[in-house]
Amino acid sequence: MYSKAASLLPFSSSSSPSFRIPSRHIILYLLLLLLVPPALHSVYTSFAAFRTRAALDVVYAHYEEDLGVRDGLERHVRRINMRLGWKFRIRNVVYLKGPEEQQGVRMNEWLDGQGWVDHWERLENLGREGGAYLHHIITHYPSSSPDTTSPSSPRTLADKTLFVQGHMAWGNVGMGRFPFISRNTGFLSLAPYRTGQCGHTDQGLIYPQMVRIWELFRGTKCPEEETQLVTWAGQFIVSRARILANPLSAYTETQRMLYAPPDDPIHNDTAEWFPKGDPSNPFFGHSLERSWGVIFDCNEPRLAEESPSPGL
User: Fold this and answer.
1) DSSP labels for 200-265?
2) Is 100 helix (H, G, I), strand (E, B) or coil?
3) DSSP three-state, residue 119
4) Pairing mode, if any, of strands 160-165 and 236-239?
């Protein structure tokens, strides 16, 4: 008898051809089920992490360093962006402290024509590179801070700030430490670490004003019997949290001492071998350069003995 139901079921009769999936295809199918979803998830999470990268301000204190793409500022910027751009959302900020006309160009026109410059500003040539760094911190310190002296400014500190000059001193050391930079970095110097004891450095040089900086930011008398970390070259990365751990008043007082006029008593601490009273290159600025680790709570002398000496 003809069965209509049976006719709707392919291969239901004994006369129908058998239908079998080769075992190798089954194995491949199962492998795809196992591997493709995790791979897609990995791609998705990587893309999501890229889109939610922490913000990084790269602050350049430029005086008269070369501008060219071969060895100058432009190459400097490209190298940093290439190494950190996949980890952070970068904003490049340039503070000019040198002449308006340099190397055959007008600096304002040159910077306006550079696509990598997000913000630039001209500052008076005071206080070495530290003057530019303090200016950035003070003008970006949040106005919501309990410190009532905070300026009312729409600008805010990025998650991390990388402070550098118009060139990378100790490039082999600085670039070698870039792999250690992450979302968790609190402070990391991009130059050699040294040690000292309240301004008496392991090089045999004395910077007595480092004692003032210690007392201002640590709130205690500098312990002369203890060894402290000393930083070089004024190039480092620091987190927003480490910056805000210090009151704004500490930064403004440091800026006041750094910008002190030639007749200020602070210049009495200038070493005999150093020119006295030059506001563009005060001796206090060299003490500040060596104190960034202490300022940002990375007083770990052991880092001077480690290689490649990451920060904390």
Assistant:
1) EETTS-B-THHHHHHHHHH-S---TTS-EEEE-TT-EEEEHHHHHTS-HHHHHHHHHHHT--TTSG
2) coil
3) strand
4) antiparallel
CA angle 204, 207, 212 (to 5 degrees): 145
Locate 18 and state its tokens. Answer: 């058998």
In terms of average pLDDT, the best of 40-44, 65-69, 99-103, 304-308 is: 99-103
Tokens of 291: 């104190």
How distant is the alpha carbon of residue 72 from its chain centre?
A: 19
| CA-to-CA separations, 199 to 26, 136, 195, 223, 269, in angstroms, rounded | 73, 26, 9, 11, 12
- Percent of the chain beyond pLDDT 70? 79
3 state DSSP class of 312: coil
Structure tokens at 12: 């239901």
- How many whole angstroms separate alpha carbon 88 and alpha carbon 312? 18
Give me the amino acid identity at 30. L
Supply the pTM of this predicted model: 0.80
Q: Whats the size of the chain, residue-wise? A: 312
pLDDT for 71 beyond 70: no
Helix/strand/coil for 196:
strand
Q: How many CB atoms lie within 10 A of CB 102?
A: 17
Range of 52-66, 162-176, 181-195, 267-281 with top mean pLDDT? 181-195
- CA distance linking residue 149 with residue 157, whole number of Å: 17
Q: Are 257 and 136 in contact (CB under 8 A)?
A: no
CA distances from 32 to 37, 40, 42, 44 (A): 8, 11, 15, 18
Q: Transcribe 7-28 into DSSP letters.
A: HTSTT-STTSPP----HHHHHH
* 8 Å CB contact between 107 and 90: no
In this structure, how many other beta carbons lie within 10 angstroms of the beta carbon of residue 145? 12
